[in-house]
Amino acid sequence: LRPPTVIGQFHTLFFGSVRTFFLGVLGFAAYGNEVLHFSCDPGKTEVNLFCYNQFRPITPQVFCVLQLVIVLVPGAFFHLYAACRSIRQEDNLQKSFYTGFYIFSFSRIILEAVAFRLQIQLFGFKVNAIYTCDVGALEEKFNITRCMVPEHFEKTIFRIAMYTFTVITVVLCVAEIFKISCRRLGFLKTQ
To answer: Which of 87, 126, 164, 171 could, after both became Cys, cross-link 82 (CB 3.0–4.6 A)?
Structure first.
């Protein structure tokens, strides 16, 4: 069962293909072996791992995959419901209940906004080349150590691209709700 509007179909294509491809291929290229190249104290593996875990409590790849899965859930419920009820494509926007249920599946806008806010809190917009780590919990001689972050510029570009994808997804969802609402109110003719 495909989405009832052209905007929804484009959203599905964009969300399912472009965003997932970008995350999988380029995300792996930017973050794939980051822990191996993150270096604070070349002689002490435990300091490197401790600081890396402090620097990156969750990798952006894992966070983005979780975001994709969570955002897909409301739409999946609608499509599962529609498939179980054998709702035809044309009926999606003709009956109020189906339209309401379809619009409810747009709770993904809220989920995207929450994920966007969390991404900014966790990762920020820019990856700095040097990370200052507090190693006081390891009972080291010095409490602060500086760590080198590998490929920080690539990671910054990846983050900005993921934020851009989130904004595009939200804009597409809002545009689809607007189009559906205009159709239901009679401003646009049903195709």
So the answer is: 87
